Fold this sequence. Notes:
The complex is a heterodimer.
Chain A: H1 2-36, H2 38-41, E1 45-49, E2 55-60, H3 88-104, E3 127-128, H4 130-144, H5 148-157, E4 159-160, E5 171-173, H6 174-181
Antiparallel strand pairs in A: 1-2, 3-5, 4-5
Helix pairs in contact in A: 4-5
Chain B: H1 2-30, H2 38-52, H3 62-86, H4 102-113, H5 123-126, H6 129-159, H7 169-195, E1 205-208, E2 215-218, H8 224-232, H9 253-277, H10 281-308, H11 330-343, H12 358-369, H13 380-400, E3 405-406, E4 409-410, H14 413-438, H15 451-465, H16 481-511, H17 527-560
Antiparallel strand pairs in B: 1-2, 3-4
Helix pairs in contact in B: 1-9, 1-11, 2-7, 3-4, 3-6, 3-16, 4-16, 6-7, 6-8, 6-16, 7-8, 7-9, 8-9, 9-10, 9-11, 10-11, 10-12, 10-17, 11-12, 12-15, 12-17, 13-14, 13-17, 14-15, 14-16, 15-17
InterPro entries (chain B): KdpA (IPR004623)
Transmembrane segments (chain B): 9-27, 65-90, 133-155, 176-198, 253-274, 286-304, 373-398, 419-444, 485-507, 528-551
Protein name (chain B): Potassium-transporting ATPase potassium-binding subunit
Amino acid sequence: MKRLKELKPALVCFGIMTILCGMLYTAVITGISQILFPVQANGSIITILQKDGTEKEYGSKLISQDFKEPEYLIGRPAGVTNLSPVSKEEKKLVQERIDWWHSFDPGNPSDIPMDLVTASGSGVDPHITPQAAEYQVNRIAKARGMTEDEVRNIIKDYTSGRFLGFIGEPAVNVLKVNLALDGLL
Amino acid sequence: MKYMIMQDVFYIVVLMGLSIPLGNYIYKVMSGEKVFLSPLLVPVEKKIYKLMGTDGQEEMSAKKYAYSVVLFSVAGFVFLFLLLMLQGFLPLNPQKMRGTSWHLAFNTAASFISNTNWQAYSGESTLSYLTQFLGLTVQNFVSAATGIAVLFALIRGFTAKQKTTLGNFWADLTRIVIYVLIPLSMVVVLLLVSQGVVQTFSQYKEIASFGSGEAQVIPLGPAASQIAIKQLGTNGGGFFGMNSAFPLENPTILSNFIQVLSILLIPASLCVSFGKAVKDGKQGRTVYAAMLIFFAAALIAATASEQLTGPMLNGAISSGSMEGKEVIHGVGGSTLWAVATTAASNGSVNAMHDSLTPMAGLVTMFLMQLGEIVFGGVGSGLYGMLAFVLLTVFIAGLMVGRTPEYLGKKVEPFDMKMVCLLVLTPPLLTLLGTAVAVSMPFAASWLTNSGAHGFSEILYAFSSMANNNGSAFAGFNANTVFTNVTGGIIMLLVRFIPIGAAIFLAGNMAKKKTIAVSEGTLSTSNPTFIGLLIGVILIVGALSFLPALALGPIADFVTSR
């Protein structure tokens, strides 16, 4: 019986914590988030008002999409490999990606930035480095009949810098650049 | 390289700056003093005690304290296990997730009540919203609070004079949750949502993708509320499978900084609280300094490895190893996180650890294998570190031929037995688990990589589970009956054996008289002692793990050159 006496506070305490940390906390946070940050809390979906007055959704600005045409900025390889970066399998895979870029854009003499030929951690990295965007400027300009500087300016508009000037890395949002290239953003 | 150094230094400065006020605050909360939230929370606290049928004042013996911890954890385990199995029949399940297998439910329940958050599943394809917030979020809070409560029981053991009690577990737990964890989480969560971490009960979003025109599914859920406490409570379990590498869990550079800061914030602050509680700030600074030295050394080694030993390929620019990393975090932000998450027993990731270069992989593994004491888990890191402090005092005492003492208490055979349980349980179970796993005939089928790196995947998995970390070399296929069951048992043993040892150590310490400091007393707060402490930790870690590390990451490094 003495043992059982301890059971009551254990069960009641667990029940209270479940209500407090599970239900109340989550509900309050969800409520505040939905009021203060409705776009962010729901997946940062890019919604654009169309000419006919309806709204169209183009995807989340945080999730990469697959682009394969020369007139679009192309992002990082999709998916996650979990391969050791110094393994034979990984070297073979990266070499295949390098070869793909060379056949896709044969006239490009530059070396390919590393992020374009390696997979990300999330598998859906929405960003590429500014170098990786610059690598594609000439091709996009040609395919679209734009000048290189027009393309560069659009890329610049959707490039984010380091936080406080020194934390993290500068990055280009691929989906936003492509929407802007098509004149949608 | 310049920016990496700047951001690492800035990180450590901000961490230390915040740990002092927060450490003082936690000390006040745990000693029952008034804090700025008291007017608001005292009535809530009283109400909770009333419902529990205690007054929160009743002092518990070591036995009763330990018994309460176990009962509370068992209640959490049973509830979570049932929730996982039955989620298919329960509401708030917009994606119609079915119940999990028994062995996955067992592993996950063991993992979350033990503050490990090892995940053999991917959240967005396995769990209902109800399971996430009613099961996992709750354990994120209470398993963290349990660790901190046990730490304070141990501290009271050191400060008490000829007492038989250690405080009240229910009051400790309640106060940590409502005064520390919930308020801090509220701040962090709103910052995270403002950056784009999702927080909603709506179902997953399906959109025709602009790029290919194909349907793209964007997973959603009440994520931010769990992610805040996942980082603050050194839990580490991702709401989504890709954890904090996934942009909806960690969208920007700022959200990344907030999260990586949250990982070490409470463990670092507790060093300050410890100094306050034993009325000798120097004792707190000693353990803090030892932890910082390990952390800085690991950070330098891992960053150098990632930046300088990445692959070189014809036709691609060599700019550090980017495989498994997000562009916005780069080598610097990913490595800082990898070191912080394995130094603390957090285990969340913002890059894939399987794709770390061999030597950086070694650093992360070794940080776990040291027993999760370089900051470590909330509470558990510091009580683990204090066990090493006692071991150091004991060894130093043997060398000079005096009875060892710490904080004015004699260290005697019973205390050393408890210290041995605290220090030796994790390495023993790590090696045992690894050995059994590699001897399984079908072990090779669990691996993504081959050769030495394949062995590293197994060694990492068991180092992670047997030290309550929870991160993974994610190429390792964890959702098998063997790993779920053995891993689940290991996580429980490695959590509750040290907890029991810490509480009984506290009980025994509390009973003793305090002896005055004399000429011959070994100082436990000078640089010599910090050096000794680091030496002891390294020797125990190296003796236990060098052979295994030689077969894994070291062989990987040498053969890939």
